[in-house]
Amino acid sequence: MKLDSTQKYNGSKIYEGSKNDQLETFRSNHTNQKLTTNQAVKVTNTDDSLKAGNRGPTLMEDFHFREKLTHFDHERIPERVVHARGFGVHGYFQVYESMKEYTKAKFLQNPSIKTPVFVRFSTVVGSRGSADTVRDARGFATKFYTEDGNYDLVGNNIPVFFIQDAIKFPDVVHALKPEPHNEIPQASAAHDTFWDFVVNTPETAHMIMWLLSDRAIPRSFRMMEGFGVNTFRFVNAEGKGRFVKFHWKPLLGVHSLVWDEAQKLAGKDPDYHRRDIWDAINMGEFPEYELGV
Ligand code: HEM
User: Fold this and answer.
1) Are 278 and 222 in contact (CB under 8 A)?
2) Ligand 1 within 6 A of 82 CB?
3) 120 lines ligand 1 (CB under 6 A)
4) Tens of pLDDT, residues 40-58
């Protein structure tokens, strides 16, 4: 998989494969088009509103003004409960050799097809505006736009998980999020409610060892592994099933920050990880990962 952000909405066709033709319908290019309201009424600008005389109040009959403010008032969608802080990048996936023996999934059959992907990297605990370099697990979620339909592979950069039984997920997340009485701390596991959960939940021990290791402070999204965590099932055309795990391996290798660097960066450049991948792609240094099964 190569992340090069070339699937921008620029109307140009980049990769082979019929999925790209389908996606074309959703790409639009607004260059040289007239400025309009949402109802397609042409407007010369979007800076002036209708007033009652030179110094009068703004008039409710100015539908363009009301549309602009109403739109603005509704721009926010509720923040995600977990993985609120994330950054997405376009790219493509290409299989080295056909996986036909193991699966009938279309995008794993033909090494000459480039399947468009969108990958979202995220932290887990912090709010949407929190710092990138906090000690936390990272999400590594890949959406493959395959010819059979979209295939989502969510991953974390840590191969195990806090809990075995999904019913404890609300509890581990409540414990990780800021304390209820003072809303402290942001984007961090180092506080009482979390440690209370840990001591009462022995199955967290393995993930805690990972969380307190260097893996929880990656140097870059480009130098981070991804793990499907769960076990999945491949089914081939004959209907034979096999259990599989998914691992993403960055070609740049796995690298981490040290704790002191991570803490300083969180203050000096809270956008450190998103800036790193943005700058790398703009310089033509496209991150690459191998998917191991
Ligand atoms: C019982 C266990 C789990 C529950 C209930 C759960 C629940 C959730 C929820 C509610 C979201 C937010 C969705 C949204 O608002 O957009 C989410 C996102 C996510 N989860 Fe989990 N999760 C669980 C386990 C896992 C595991 C084991 C992994 C690692 C493979 C994982 C990886 C992710 C990732 C990467 C995202 C962000 C996806 C994105 O970037 O859009 N989760 N999860």
Assistant:
1) no
2) yes
3) yes
4) 999 999 999 999 999 999 9
